[in-house]
Amino acid sequence: MAKFLYRIGGWAATWRKSVLAGGILILLLAAVFGLRMGPVFEGDVSIPGTEAEMASKALQEKFPSGTASNAGKIQLVFESQGKSLESPDVKKAIQLSLEAISKDNNVASIADPYASGTISPNKEIGYATITYKVPGSDVKASSIEALDRQAEKLRDAGFKVEKSAISGQPEIPKVGVISEVIGIALAFLILLIFFRSLLAAGLPIITAVLGLGIGVLLILIGSNYVDLAAISLTTAIMLGLAVGIDYGLFILSRHRQNLLEGKSIRESIAVATGTAGSAVVFAGITVIIALIGLSVTSIPFLTFMGLAAALTVFIAVLIAILVVPAVLSLLGDRLMPKSAGKKNSYVPARESNAWGRFVTKFPLPVALVGILLLGFISLPALHLQTGLPNDGMKSVETTERRAYDLLANGFGDGFNGPLIVLATADGVQNPQSAIAQAAEEISGIKGIANTAPLVPNQDGAAAILTVIPQSGPLDKETGKLVESIRAKSDDTESQYGVKLMVTGSTAMDVDITKKLNEALPVFGLLVVGLAFVLLLLVFRSLLVPLKAVLGYLLTMTATLGFVVFVFQDGNMADFFGITQSGPILNFLPMLTAGILFGLAMDYEVFLVSRMREKFVHKNDAKGAILFGIKSSGSVVTAAALIMVCVFAGFVFAEDTMIKSMGLALAFGVLIDAFVVRLAVLPAIMTLLGRSSWYLPKWLDRILPNIDVEGSALEEEKSFSASNNDHLKKSVSR
Fold first, then answer.
1. Range of the domain at 494
2. 428 and 454: one domain?
3. Is 376 a member of any domain?
4. H or E element at residue 133
5. Is the confidence at residue 347, as pLDDT, over 50?
6. In whole angstroms, what is the distance from residue 634 CA to residue 629 CA?
7. 702 in a domain, yes or no?
8. Is the pLDDT of residue 724 over 80?
9. Is residue 338 part of a domain?
10. 409 part of a folded domain
11. pLDDT, position 670
12. Which has the closest alpha carbon to 550: 502, 591, 600?
């Protein structure tokens, strides 16, 4: 592969203008098609085949219109603030506003709090349900604006008025420009310190943004053909930007080293693409495999989320091995390091640095401190609770959060998470009587605050029972209540012939969380097994892959522990701008496991491949560790800090899901690079000595030789240069 990439790099350097123009042309074409077609994202995170989803389908069959309609709905919540909502002047003001809203041609009906009895026991909080003629995604902005105008009039009259999110409308997470700007600005600062050149610092960022633009626009086009969750775009942006900058950094760094060696610009670019480019391709493939591996869970939204992120990583790899060499060629000797005047000044006086010498001098204390630290950080993960964030976890500055709080204050915590129970009595002589008896059985289950009257369908063989839990939608008790009602179905079916099915958004979230938690161990085993096999092939050792996998597991548990500590337990919430603690995003552990696996293997490859190269030549285990930390440690440090900055920038986003993803990935990369890869694992390798590189001879014979650092190419070039020098000397004689 190194030789092939060498030729690719040389070709791109020769045809630099054409390659760069081609990249820009692809971006423009993608922009024309992508912006013309527009995004079509799904707002919900759903899994087909769950009990709640099957209950929802059964509900639509039994209630083909009306109750089971998918029409967009908004709850307008009022608080009279000291007055009774039933006082004449308050009632008149609210009804006049609702009458004005009803004049909108898009409004199908309004259930006001007086006719429907949706007023709290203390008479100070109530809500009206506005139902539109079209699904939530098709409600016009003018209709929302008309509603907002009436809400503002009521506020001017002394009422507190808030509105819920419209049902059925995809809610694309708001990343905010500040997230990307902060991440890119910090990445530029790190590159500037690393390269000490404005031009060199800007190059990886510009090429990464080019690749990210192409990837994002292709995702927008793809959203018209497959069902993509809105969060997929954010994940792709987050990962595509981070790896794009890192991959550009690796090739640029090797190119500048080659220039210092005295190579010509074209040769330097070709060698950098063949050597560092090989590592980039391997790293990219590893990340892509991990992301595509999410498909083994058989969860559609997670599968497409992984594919979308994998697409941006794939584009980042192509940009790194094609566009980056072209840009390097265009910039020519302007990228030459300032120390170029000193021959071979890039070569360290000693093949070690202070950190490497410290780790190898005190390996046991370093390993123990690192492992104990990671273990301590992992402890909160023991009480990990997952779920899907709702309006109650949004910022208090949003009207949806304030509406959620008002409803909880007026009607109880469980009001925001009602359970829809479908009771069917097919083939029973007196179905309504049987369903009523089954409903009585349900009302006695522990954890129910109250139940609404039964709503039968046209033939009377089915009815809907709305159950209000005592606990909130994200509480564990609510999940237990869902299971209790389902378990009760066996009794009601045998006694009354009534089957009970539970659905609704809360039950959907409970089932999704359960499905994801069940899929996590399967995906974890796949990732760990894949990591071991890949590293076994690359490093031709049994213990190096084993300790790398164990290090990855420490990274994962510590990352989850820190996320639980902050998001679930509420510690440091003000520092990170978290307005409400609660369960961890239910697909975050699996997504984090996939992404961190790819990134952890990247750093492992960049560090340990140089160690192996030195060990093969010198047969000195400790010297190999020192050389690896010295030669690759600074690049890995810069790459990891860039990743951390890009991911940490998303912690400033408003959306809770994006915040948690940004924090998890930033912290995960931080501890994996600096605690696991640069401290614990080198310390353990020092303790193991030559045993680190043990591989049975029979296994060595059957394993293919994978050269991810392009060592064979470098040796070939060195040999060729040596022969040329020898021939020149012979001719001169």
1. 419-503
2. yes
3. yes
4. strand 125-135
5. no
6. 8
7. no
8. no
9. no
10. no
11. 94
12. 600
